[in-house]
Amino acid sequence: MKITRIAVQGAAGRMGRCVIQAALAMPEIELAAAVDRWDSPELGEDVGSFIGGEDAGVTLAHDLATATDRFDVLVDFSGPDATVTALEVCRKHRKGIVIGTTGFSNEQKKLIEQAATEIPVCQSANFSVGVNVVLKLLGEAAQALGDAYDVEIVEAHHRNKVDAPSGTALRMGEVVALALGRDLRRDAVYGREGQTGVRDGKAIGFATVRGGDVIGEHTVLFLGEGESVEIAHRATTRTNFARGALRAAGWLNGRAAGSYSMQEVLGL
Ligand SMILES: NC(=O)c1ccc[n+]([C@@H]2O[C@H](COP(=O)([O-])OP(=O)(O)OC[C@H]3O[C@@H](n4cnc5c(N)ncnc54)[C@H](O)[C@@H]3O)[C@@H](O)[C@H]2O)c1
Fold first, then answer.
1. Which numbered atom of ligand 1 lies nearest the CA of 81?
2. Which pLDDT value is given to residue 50?
3. Distances in Å between the alpha carbon of 184 and those of 4, 138, 177, 180?
């Protein structure tokens, strides 16, 4: 069995903890390093103990650069600026990177694209298998239903999420736009208020709900004359994202430089 040694960035966060838990349970994954911010209260603690389990023999650190001889692939669930800094470390030391972080600026997206010419990068706004199946279904549904159906995307997340709409909702919009020959940069409508006028038939609408501890819910509505179709996904735990990201890390280990999607990892 091929073992992939991973480092986790954002290890003390909601997703980071799930990645640690999942990694410790997967025989093909070796948790080699875990990093978070220099002022993280858990710094110096064993990662096994701060997720409520037995010691894992890995201490939470803050400097990824000092761990580069110990891991093959970095699994990143932190924040856009932290990801870009880590990307530079991975690039310099020829490490693969799985990017789960969302909310990148266009400039940061370009840096990720550039890095993918030198190292293997797997980026997905959503590492769950279910969402990736939904993305495939959405392309087929949009193609079959065509322009006669108005497309609206509604997403809900917990109160601590800092970007909107979610990266997954945007990806869903891109898939639908591609299938319908539209351009999300031109056709997306982010929320509505006041005298909006009638709906533009080419619009792809987004509505965002934030609150409580909702892990992630996405519904794409195709609204036609006399009927509507809804394709929805609901995440009830973060474990599915973590397991998917680790599956991507194993798949990425040893691959040539390039930009890979979770759909490719899953062979969809
Ligand atoms: N792709 C997916 O499947 C998926 C699923 C869930 C969440 N996310 C995304 O993952 C990211 C993290 O989500 P979360 O809910 O775990 O957030 P969180 O705030 O709970 O965790 C983020 C962690 O990153 C750490 N961090 C911030 N700056 C850092 C730095 N410079 N160096 C090291 N660590 C740093 C924080 O201290 C924190 O522990 C978000 O962008 C979120 O949208 C993606």
1. 31
2. 87
3. 37, 15, 6, 11
C-alpha angle with apex 255: 249 to 261, nearest 5 degrees?
Answer: 60
Respond yes or no: is residue 157 known to be catalytic.
yes
Pocket of ligand 1 (CB under 6 A): 9-10, 12-16, 35-37, 40, 77-79, 82, 100-103, 124-127, 241
Distance in Å, CA 9 to ligand 1 centroid: 8
- The pLDDT of residue 74 is 98
- Which residues are 4's β-sheet partners? 29
Does residue 161 carry a catalytic annotation?
Answer: yes
Q: Whole-prediction pTM value?
A: 0.90
Q: Separation of 118 CA from ligand 1 center, angstroms? A: 24
| Spans in the chain with pLDDT lower than 70 | none
Position 208 scores a pLDDT of 98
Give the number of other Cβ atoms within 10 Å of residue 153's Cβ. Answer: 24
- The preferred substitution site among 8, 9, 21, 36 for testing ligand 1, maximizing ligand atoms within 8 Å of CB, is 36
What's residue 99's pLDDT? 98
